[in-house]
Specification:
Length: about 450
Amino acid sequence: MKKVGNHNSISRKLLLGVTLMLAISFTSFAQDAAPAAATEAPAAAQGADPVKGKELFNSNCAACHKLDAKATGPALRGVAGRHDKAWLYKWIHNSSALIKSGDAAAVKIYEEYNKSVMTAFPQLSEGDIDNIIAYTSEEKAAAPAAVPGQAAAGTSNGDDSGVSNNIILGALALVMLMLVVMLFLVNSVLTKVAKANGIQVAPKTPTTPIWKAFAKNQFLVLVTAIFLLLASAYFVYGFLMQVGVDQNYEPIQPIHYSHKIHAGDNEINCKYCHSAARVSKNAGIPSLNVCMNCHKNISEVAETTATPEYSKAFYDEQIQKLYTAVGWDKATQSYTGKTQPVKWVRIHNLPDFVYFNHSQHVTVAGIECQTCHGPVETYEIQKQFAPLTMGWCINCHRKTEVKMEGNDYYTKIHEELSKKYGVDKLTAAQMGGLECGKCHY
Ligand code: HEC
Ligand code: HEC
Ligand code: HEC
Ligand code: HEC
Ligand code: HEC
Ligand code: HEC
């Protein structure tokens, strides 16, 4: 009996040791975590919000900028590392003015991008720009929880805290594993010692298996059930929300028609072909006669148009398809009368219960095609740029100010509504752009 008591005291000491080690490893974890918390504090104080930044970026900048690739303008991820804040405010508020002032960095980037002019954004506040910068400073596919810290700390600091967190986690896992192994070893050593001393180790009392204990505990079962339900609801919701959303849909067309070559390289105005966009609900796809205005004379592309991906022969064959479709005989330069209509695959398609009108947005609101369709002049193959969800329409209506100048019809409404809302400028939303009936039949 006495020896058994001894055995117990040994295991108690061991237990104490283990607890001590755990305690130490936790305090060291806490110490590591402390500086990370400290770097996060100024972020909260500054209040730069990458989520708002993303919205602003998508509605104002995405037409010309991507985060990680060159588009019309440079890739913007980590731009805060290339310029200081004051420069960025000036640049984004009015880049032309900055270039005119002879700022070396501004002139350099302007030359580099073939002197394309970036839109001025005087309407963005410095807070808005901070948010956008916070968004562009996010790590690629960084965990959202880590974002605020990284945003403020800039790229390099953000890196560190991400790595050290991983190291801490790894170290903790290792410590745990070692503890488990040690416990097993200790247990087997003790049993051996006990056996050697001829002590009866008390046989294991049959314990109820964990799952049975779990099944008996109704509270635990309830909590788990609720958790599982919530989790599956989350995933089902996520799945349902992307049903019918065809962002980036990029079908193969019967004729490989390149917007890059036409609207980009040859600078043909969008409205030359999509002339209806200005005056009617639909932008429309041009009839092949419009193509023939030029293609009676252009039967092949220049040598320089070919790219590694698409050869000159490939492009020429596409123009030949156009000729076959309209029944144009290249040799005699006349129509044969035999036509085969081209069936373009429709890319954008709102559900029938939604009313969308191009002229309202293009002519009345003066919104560029690219805001909604992306940098079309760079698309070799046309695709759907925007998600075309209700949230997308609504977000823009909340943010976009209506152009009142030079529109008599609006002058009176403007006076009344701006009094009602106590603001100078009205957004499309305040003009009624959130009423269900405006968009739904
Ligand atoms: C109409 C196209 C267009 C839009 C819209 C646009 N940019 Fe630009 N941006 C450019 C071009 C082009 C350049 C390259 C310089 C030049 O040619 O003026 C540029 C350059 C920049 C630079 C300098 C980048 C560097 O690496 O030095 C920053 C920063 C920038 N843009 C931020 C923004 C932000 C923020 C927005 C949205 C609020 C925005 N841009 C919207 C076209 C655009
Ligand atoms: C020379 C004529 C021409 C010009 C110029 C042109 N387009 Fe197109 N566009 C077409 C044709 C043809 C199609 C159908 C084939 C396709 O989808 O690629 C089309 C398709 C589109 C679509 C997709 C339609 C759908 O099915 O949903 C969009 C959006 C579009 N154009 C926007 C633009 C914008 C924006 C510009 C100006 C930057 C432009 N287009 C300039 C001829 C033209
Ligand atoms: C305003 C003049 C103009 C109009 C209108 C026009 N094109 Fe073109 N097209 C061009 C030019 C210029 C080229 C390029 C020639 C070169 O690169 O040497 C070209 C090239 C092409 C090519 C070969 C490159 C490619 O995009 O695959 C095809 C196919 C083509 N056009 C089809 C069409 C179709 C279809 C239409 C009508 C929807 C159309 N074009 C309307 C001027 C025009
Ligand atoms: C406010 C956002 C917005 C702007 C600005 C805009 N579009 Fe669209 N566009 C859409 C939506 C939404 C659709 C889908 C319409 C549908 O399915 O009924 C669409 C569809 C199209 C189509 C497919 C054919 C059609 O009429 O449905 C073409 C082509 C097109 N747009 C060209 C243009 C051109 C060219 C411009 C600039 C002159 C332009 N869009 C400006 C949102 C926009
Ligand atoms: C890029 C911003 C933008 C997007 C995206 C956008 N709209 Fe608009 N929309 C506007 C603006 C700005 C006006 C106000 C035009 C005006 O009356 O001056 C407007 C007006 C309207 C109106 C008329 C509202 C009224 O008060 O009479 C309707 C209807 C409408 N939009 C539908 C849509 C639908 C449907 C979508 C999505 C498929 C959409 N819009 C996407 C900017 C946008
Ligand atoms: C600015 C335009 C606009 C306004 C205002 C608007 N909707 Fe929508 N709504 C849309 C568009 C676009 C879709 C299609 C979304 C899609 O296909 O994913 C849609 C889809 C829907 C759907 C179908 C469910 C879905 O997500 O596809 C319902 C229900 C709906 N709207 C209800 C409403 C109600 C209720 C209101 C008023 C509070 C309203 N909408 C106001 C543009 C609008």
